[in-house]
Design brief:
The protein is an alpha/beta fold and 314 residues long. It has helices spanning 42-52, 67-78, 140-149, 165-168, 171-184, 192-198, 204-213, 252-266, 270-274, 280-298, 308-313, and strands spanning 17-20, 24-29, 36-40, 57-60, 63-64, 82-83, 88-89, 95-100, 106-111, 127-131, 156-160, 187-191, 218-222, 228-232, 235-239. It has a single domain, classed as Ribokinase (UDP-N-acetylmuramoyl-L-alanine:D-glutamate ligase), CATH 3.40.1190. Helix content is 36%, strand content 21%. Strands 6-4-1-10-11-12-13-14-15 form a nine-stranded mixed beta sheet, sandwiched between helices. Helix 1 crosses helix 8. 48% of the residues are buried. It comes from Cryobacterium zongtaii. One of its GO terms (molecular function) is ATP binding. It holds the Pfam family PfkB. Keywords: ATP-binding, Kinase, Nucleotide-binding, Transferase.
């Protein structure tokens, strides 16, 4: 990247993002209010966020031909996101109950089925993103790893562990799976809560250093109201969160992820990541866009990421 280059809002015509992972219905329960249903799932949220930002995106997932599945399909269409043929199955659509506390923080209870559709993935793709439950839960997790590691050379690979301890299994098994996928990825993002569960007692700075030393070209840790830490090679950027009144935190990390990937694309940073030549100024520019995306999302209910106009207005 050129250090003094101003960010562009346009996406190259040849750009195509592929997101692999779960799509489900979030049933949100707030104190003193009736439950509300939203389309959700971390990879689905990232695909939707990319679509809202004008990135041509295809989602590979598993939903049912049922009312919940129709809600998800319509939600994706509204952002211009394609469902890969084969993603709609005869089974039921998965769901997650999100229980919000008085501060808007969410805990989850899942009713989930996951098996990657047996279909050919579209090619070529500019980037492939995966993460969360779909990358761990079997039998789909093995197929996700195969699709991810089998991507053509030059494809930007992005991964967000988005740990869900109640459904993913033992910590040791999850750590092994997360590290295996991360070794194949160029971009890895995790939250401070993910990091604390995966590596109790280890500092965020040390975790970032370890992942970069293992070959990750761009590693980011989100820290909620304390902003984010980004590391690439020997460069580090610690960024403050954007001031915002929080309505809820649903989809905040996913919006950071889609904002980060969008920033990489519009700043022509893919080659710098593949060549591992990002500097501190680059990290600051990419991280600020991602943090702005997350701030907009937490300022309103549900996983509702920004459009390009909203992002640049902020």
């Amino acid at each position: 990247m050129t250090p003094d280059r101003a960010p562009d809002r346009s996406i190259a015509a040849s750009t195509r993002a592929l997101v692999i992972g779960e799509a489900l219905i979030d049933i949100v329960r707030r104190p003193g209010a009736e439950p509300v249903s939203h389309a959700g799932g971390s990879p689905m949220n990232v695909a939707y966020g990319l679509g809202r930002l004008g990135v041509p995106t295809t989602l590979v997932t598993q939903i049912g031909a049922d009312p919940f599945g129709e809600i998800i399909a319509g939600h994706l269409r509204a952002a211009g996101v394609d469902l890969l043929p084969g993603s709609v199955t005869t089974g039921a659509t998965s769901s997650a109950t999100a229980i919000l506390d008085a501060a808007g923080a969410a805990t989850y209870d899942f009713d989930l089925r996951w098996e990657l559709p047996s279909v050919a993935l579209p090619a070529p793709c500019t980037l492939i993103h995966t993460g969360s439950i779909a990358a761990i839960l079997q039998p789909g997790g093995r197929a996700v790893l195969t699709a991810f590691t089998g991507a053509p050379a030059g494809t930007l690979l992005s991964y967000d562990p988005n740990v869900r301890p109640g459904i993913m299994g033992s910590r040791d098994d999850v750590v092994r799976a997360v590290e295996e996928l991360s070794r194949a990825a160029h971009v890895v993002k995790m939250s401070d809560e993910d990091a604390a569960w995966l590596y109790p007692g280890r500092s965020l700075d040390q975790i970032a250093r370890d992942y970069v030393a293992a070959g990750v070209a761009l590693f980011a840790i989100t820290r909620g109201g304390d902003g984010a830490l980004l590391r690439a090679g020997g460069a580090t950027a610690e960024l403050a969160a954007h001031p915002v009144t929080v309505v809820d935190t649903i989809g905040a990390g996913d919006s950071f992820m889609s904002g980060l990937l969008y920033a990489i694309l519009v700043n022509d940073a893919t080659e710098a990541i593949l060549q591992n030549t990002l500097g501190a100024a680059d990290l600051g520019r990419l991280g600020q866009t991602a943090l702005a995306s997350a701030a907009i999302t937490v300022s309103r209910a549900g996983a509702n990421p920004p459009t390009v106009a909203e992002l640049f207005a902020r």
